From TrEMBL:
<keyword id="KW-0663">Pyridoxal phosphate</keyword>
<dbReference type="GO" id="GO:0008483">
    <property type="term" value="F:transaminase activity"/>
</dbReference>
<keyword id="KW-0032">Aminotransferase</keyword>
<dbReference type="InterPro" id="IPR015422">
    <property type="entry name" value="PyrdxlP-dep_Trfase_small"/>
</dbReference>
<comment type="similarity">
    <text>Belongs to the trans-sulfuration enzymes family.</text>
</comment>
<dbReference type="InterPro" id="IPR000277">
    <property type="entry name" value="Cys/Met-Metab_PyrdxlP-dep_enz"/>
</dbReference>
<dbReference type="Pfam" id="PF01053">
    <property type="entry name" value="Cys_Met_Meta_PP"/>
</dbReference>
<keyword id="KW-0808">Transferase</keyword>
<dbReference type="InterPro" id="IPR015424">
    <property type="entry name" value="PyrdxlP-dep_Trfase"/>
</dbReference>
<dbReference type="InterPro" id="IPR015421">
    <property type="entry name" value="PyrdxlP-dep_Trfase_major"/>
</dbReference>
<protein>
    <submittedName>
        <fullName>Aminotransferase class I/II-fold pyridoxal phosphate-dependent enzyme</fullName>
    </submittedName>
</protein>
Length: 387
């Protein structure tokens, strides 16, 4: 796959999502690549089998390792992120777990930047049994520098984060980490590879849950890690192969299908979320609104430098954010459904507020692909319950 030096990122990404790495002549001219729904691959001679087994991770032997459908997805995702290699997993947590299990040793420290995904923190809490520690900090270079320890092995970032949409200074953190010999990784699910390319800002590894925008239809679970071959290959060997969180060929096919419409869907998610944000900004009951397009100060500079577009996830606070009021608001919604995850075609609403009025007093909305006026009408009806 070759591109002219003048090819824009958007045009290059569109070609990767739709046609790149696909060899239709091998598929009898089929426009959709086949699903290689097989557990194993056979060989014409024992000599060839013996030869292949010496380098199993470069050949199709057993679908826990390489599978042609999964490999096509990995090639596309690596190209989208401008990485050398990608490895797909059965879930986002499969990718995160394999990465941390491979990179971390007893005595290592992980620095989490911004509010980490809950199961990521739970994984690190479990890894404390094996002598791995972690702490948390904000997204500026200064905050990270102050929080780094002598034994910090990995700086793990969420930017934007998935509850408060907090941003981090990727260039500054990457530069600091390189100067200290520390690895960096980012959960890039919010932005997708279309709207943020952390590897081009010096981050070592980027991870996604394929269940969100990449899949786009809320019908698959998967994950991926992308980066330099020297980092991803050991994750493949020690994390993927030994932990066994292999992405199924059918799920890979669904993710490939999702990629074909990802650029178009992300444009619509962006258009819808900006309309919703404009509406929420007019509501007297809203006391705080969180989305990268609203960033101020140094965070606004990070957004300008790092993000080329905006996804449909946002959160906000209301006046007197009791559980009863938040539940009344969310339960009134009809177009927005109540459920975890995000990034699909459907709009969702959740809150982590608890009945005893503990927990974050945020309402999180995932803005889907419905007609935006239907979403605004639904929100208007819910806001009337707060008056």
């Amino acid at each position: 796959m070759a591109f002219d030096d003048n090819t824009s990122d958007a045009a290059r990404d569109s070609e990767i999502c739709t046609h790149a790495f696909e060899e239709h002549q091998r598929y009898e001219g089929a426009i959709a690549p086949p699903i290689y729904q097989t557990s194993l691959f056979t060989f014409p001679t024992l000599e060839r089998f013996t030869e292949v087994m010496r380098d199993e991770r470069s050949h199709f032997v057993y679908s826990r390792g390489l599978n042609p459908t999964v490999k096509l997805l990995e090639d596309k995702l690596a190209a989208l992120e401008r990485g050398e290699m990608a490895k797909a997993f059965a879930s986002g947590m499969g990718a995160i777990s394999a990465t941390m299990m491979t990179l971390l040793d007893q005595g290592d420290h992980v620095l989490l930047v911004n509010q980490a995904y809950g199961p990521t923190r739970q994984l690190l809490e479990q890894m404390a049994r094996f002598g791995v520690s972690f702490s948390e900090t904000g997204g500026s270079r200064g905050e990270v520098e102050a929080a780094v320890r002598d034994n910090t092995r990995l700086i793990y970032i969420e930017s934007p984060s998935s509850m408060r949409m907090a941003l981090a200074d990727l260039d500054g953190i990457a530069e600091l980490a390189r100067s200290r010999g520390i690895l960096t990784a980012i959960d890039n699910t919010w932005a997708t590879p279309l709207y943020q390319k952390p590897l081009t800002h010096g981050i070592d590894l980027t991870l996604h849950t394929l269940s969100k925008y990449i899949g786009g239809h809320s019908d698959l679970v998967g994950g991926v890690v992308v980066g330099r071959r020297e980092l991803v290959a050991p994750i493949f060997e020690h994390g993927h192969q030994l932990l066994g969180a292999a992405l199924s060929p059918h799920s890979a096919f669904l993710a490939l299908r999702g990629l074909r419409t990802l650029p178009i869907r992300m444009r619509q998610h962006q258009a819808n979320v900006l309309e919703v944000i404009r509406y929420l900004a007019t509501q007297p009951s809203v006391t705080g609104l969180h989305h990268p397009c609203l960033a101020t100060g140094e965070a606004a500079a990070w957004a300008e430098r790092q993000l080329s577009g905006h996804a449909g996830l946002l959160s906000f606070e209301i006046v007197d954010p009791s559980y009863v009021r938040i539940a009344g608001f969310i339960d009134t919604l009809r177009v927005f459904r109540i459920g975890v995850s995000w990034g699909g075609y459907e709009s969702l609403a959740i809150s982590q507020r608890q009945p005893d009025d503990t927990g974050p007093a945020l309402i999180r909305l995932a803005i889907g692909l419905e007609d935006v006026q239907s979403l605004l009408d639904d929100l208007e009806r819910a806001f009337r319950t707060l008056q």
